[in-house]
């Protein structure tokens, strides 16, 4: 057995024997979003590398400590990619962190989330046992699909050591259209377009450079993309400039995300709502939200005093609100995103995998 893997197993077994908490960590790029820094660090980065890549089968098996950028570079050499566009909030993020956080980028509403692409996992449970679930093909699942439960679990079910992920070929064509329109107009257009056979891939509405602007990304066959550009109108953006903007959106580096710097005292909230939800009834003193996923994801900067108002605004349209990034990460614990019934189910599964509760105590399991 690889020495790096054995070291992880030994550390888990020792922690279980002492009933001591472990803080599972990789690149630390999402610290404060899903867990608090509690317990002894269990660093997954020494266990890294690509185990197997079958380009013709559209599947790759990777060790959890592998840098996400390394995986993306290997896939790019074969004109393949991760369609769900996992956010890279900083350099150094790992594949294990990608799955554990379960976060997806701008294309989520069109292509699915992380859990939709996880085929199998290898993991260490709270007893220090080396376990495998799933496989490398979609039909390899029988009974409970444990491998996909790991997506968004923030390490509370076990230590990911290997992940098999489905990948896709890079689409042959892409275009980004720009429209100046109000929030309500943008939401209305997106709702109408989602009901048409258009190659929609991602959208972003934001108050940008003094103007309310909707950006729409199209991906697919060349004929379909060109036809959609002609029928939808708008201003077609330069391809390289648009690609840089979408990458900045994915990694939360757009100017809008800088508006809530730590010294402002504003928290970043993530409001998940139905796609057809109208503009939300938010406090008047807040800056306009940034809207992704064809209307289903609304980002809001707000002071702590508006927490209840944001939760009520999301609840009123059938959604939920979650404080995603507190202004003071050391003082404010992250919030869970699971409804009570799913929370109870998660706790039962966690009890089976980690009966002593040593993995990431205080972590906030969320839904993407």
Give structural attributes.
single chain; 368 residues; alpha+beta; eight-stranded antiparallel beta sheet; five-stranded antiparallel beta sheet; 17 strands; 28% helix; globular
Task: Please characterize this protein's 3D structure.
This protein is α+β, with helices and mostly antiparallel strands and 368 residues long. The chain has helices at residues 3-18, 68-77, 95-101, 108-111, 146-149, 183-194, 222-232, 239-250, 255-258, 307-316, 340-353, and strands spanning 22-25, 40-43, 50-54, 59-63, 80-81, 118-124, 130-134, 159-166, 168-169, 173-180, 200-208, 211-220, 235-236, 267-272, 290-292, 297-302, 320-325. The strands form 4 sheets. The protein has an 8-stranded antiparallel β-sheet with strand order 13-10-12-11-15-16-14-17, with helices on both faces. Strand 11 and strand 12 (211-220) form a beta hairpin. The chain is globular. 42% of the residues are buried.
Task: Show the helix and strand layout.
Blueprint: H1 3-18, E1 22-25, E2 40-43, E3 50-54, E4 59-63, H2 68-77, E5 80-81, H3 95-101, H4 108-111, E6 118-124, E7 130-134, H5 146-149, E8 159-166, E9 168-169, E10 173-180, H6 183-194, E11 200-208, E12 211-220, H7 222-232, E13 235-236, H8 239-250, H9 255-258, E14 267-272, E15 290-292, E16 297-302, H10 307-316, E17 320-325, H11 340-353
Parallel strand pairs: 1-2
Antiparallel strand pairs: 3-4, 4-8, 5-9, 6-7, 6-8, 10-12, 10-13, 11-12, 11-15, 14-16, 14-17, 15-16
Taken as a percent bin, the fraction of beta residues is 25-35%
| Helix proportion | 25-40%
Mean pLDDT value: 90
- Looking at the structure, what is the overall shape? globular
Number of DSSP E strands:
17
Strand neighbour order, sheet with most strands: 13-10-12-11-15-16-14-17
């Amino acid at each position: 057995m690889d020495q790096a893997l054995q070291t992880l197993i030994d550390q888990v077994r020792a922690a279980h024997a002492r009933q001591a908490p472990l803080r599972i960590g990789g690149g630390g790029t999402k610290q404060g979003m899903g867990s608090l820094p509690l317990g002894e660090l269990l660093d997954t980065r020494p266990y890294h590398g690509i185990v197997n890549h079958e380009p013709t089968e559209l599947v790759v098996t990777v060790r959890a400590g592998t840098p996400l950028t390394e995986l993306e570079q290997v896939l790019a050499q074969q004109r393949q990619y991760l369609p769900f566009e996992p956010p890279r909030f900083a350099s150094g993020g790992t594949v294990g962190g990608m799955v554990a956080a379960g976060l997806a980028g701008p294309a989520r509403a069109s292509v699915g989330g992380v859990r939709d692409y996880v085929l199998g996992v290898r993991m260490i449970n709270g007893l220090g046992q080396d376990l495998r679930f799933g496989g490398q093909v979609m039909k390899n699942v029988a009974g409970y699909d444990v491998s996909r439960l790991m997506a968004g679990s923030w390490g509370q079910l076990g230590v990911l050591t290997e992940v098999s992920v489905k990948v896709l070929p890079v689409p042959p064509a892409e275009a980004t259209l720009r429209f100046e329109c109000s929030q309500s107009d943008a939401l209305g257009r997106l709702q109408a377009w989602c009901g048409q056979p258009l190659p929609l891939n991602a959208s972003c509405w934001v108050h940008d450079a003094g103007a309310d602007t909707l950006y729409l990304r199209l991906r697919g066959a060349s004929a379909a993309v060109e036809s959609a550009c002609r029928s939808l109108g708008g201003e077609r953006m330069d391809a390289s400039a648009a690609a840089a903007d979408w990458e900045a959106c994915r990694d939360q580096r757009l100017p809008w995300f800088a508006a809530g710097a730590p010294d402002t005292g504003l928290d970043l909230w993530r409001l998940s709502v139905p796609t057809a939800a109208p503009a939300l009834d938010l406090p008047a003193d807040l800056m306009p939200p940034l809207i992704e996923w064809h209307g289903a994801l609304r980002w809001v900067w707000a002071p702590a005093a508006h927490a209840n108002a944001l939760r009520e605004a999301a609840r009123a349209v059938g959604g939920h609100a979650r404080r995603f990034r507190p202004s003071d990460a050391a003082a404010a614990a992250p919030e869970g995103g699971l409804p009570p019934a799913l929370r109870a189910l998660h706790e039962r599964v966690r009890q089976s995998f980690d009966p002593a509760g040593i993995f990431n105590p205080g972590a906030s399991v969320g839904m993407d």
